[in-house]
Amino acid sequence: MTRSTAPPRLGIRANLAQFSLLVTINALVGGVLGQERTVLPLLAGQTFHLTGYTFLLTYVLAFGVTKAATNYFAGTWSDRFGRKPVLLAGWLVAIPIPVLLIWAPTWEWVVAANVLLGVNQGLTWSTTVIMKIDLAGPARRGLAMGLNEAAGYLAVALTAVATGYLAARYGLRPAPFLLGASYVALGIGLSGLTVRETRGHARLEAGRHAARSDGRHDHLHAGLTSREVFANTSLREPALSAASQAGMVNNLNDGLAWGLFPILFATAGLSISRIGILAAVYPAVWGAGQLVTGMLSDRLGRKHFITAGMLIQAAALALVALAGTFFVWLPAAILLGAGTAMVYPTLLAVVGDVAHPAWRARAVGVYRLWRDGGFAVGAVLAGIIADLWGLRAAVWVVAALTAVSGIIVAVRMYETHPETRRVQR
Transmembrane stretches, by residue range (predicted)? Predict the structure, then answer.
């Protein structure tokens, strides 16, 4: 007997069970990333005795390059093979990561683990983004992305705190990475047994898709080739290209925070527990803030949220460069998290607003290719500058780049949310 299935419906409420499940799965994805946040920079110095910031940041570079490339393929493969197989493949790739980190005899093993981590994050996080956009429909994309990114980055923050505690109590290895192993096991089970395919929701939205009244998107029809999707998302289309460069600079910031902030804090004499708090506060504010900012961008619009968020990040980075104590770095981390929360889900919502449902998964992949390429750019740039002129000089340069990125968004991007456009007219 064949089991009948209900036809797909759009909306978060109409798909609440699957949407909530995908939020939970993305929290596990974030947890796998968070297991490294506090511990790995300390492991590099204390266990492997690395000198030179550029060499130390090879693990961020390896992660950034592979995650950026995998994001692109995740979008293409999601259209070709379906969302669920790509999600499950990403979890299977993660199985060796905790083992490699626990047993690594040399730094090259850590770099290899981060190559796998980049593939894991690119496949799983990209696919949960695509699936939530499929389910939510056009009206609440900002809220959908806020919930997705909040779950992921709150998990990063909580895991950073937990691994910092485990490292302080039991040592840098193996305890912190056993937590990551439990996340991988749960992710495989939930993705394989309970997640349902969402391509049908994208096809439903494509059948209802209406063109903009101002004709701005007339050239972005359903039949774009992958090459045309890449060109429009990267360069040609103003909103998509502005989002792509802002995403890259945003993750350049995160690569800096991930790779160099713990070292900067350690040079000031902070304890492992306080470094863990600072490493967690930034993604915690980032994660929790997206619960509000994604929803507000559905009401107030995307462009100004992104511009303000980039400028707030620049100010926070400048404060990090100026400060030298825990009690000044703490508000700087809060400010950096708040600015990132304004930007992160809103940029994804812009891609969802502009891209046609027929090629939206590919556009998300291209956007995330550029965005997560920021990890690699940040690792190289910050590492070289830190080696030549010091840690604080690297933070100052990234702060300036972030301010310039915000100005580019203000000049180049137009408002993309349909409700806001109607109010503005």
Answer: 12-33, 53-74, 86-104, 150-168, 175-195, 256-285, 305-327, 333-352, 373-389, 395-414
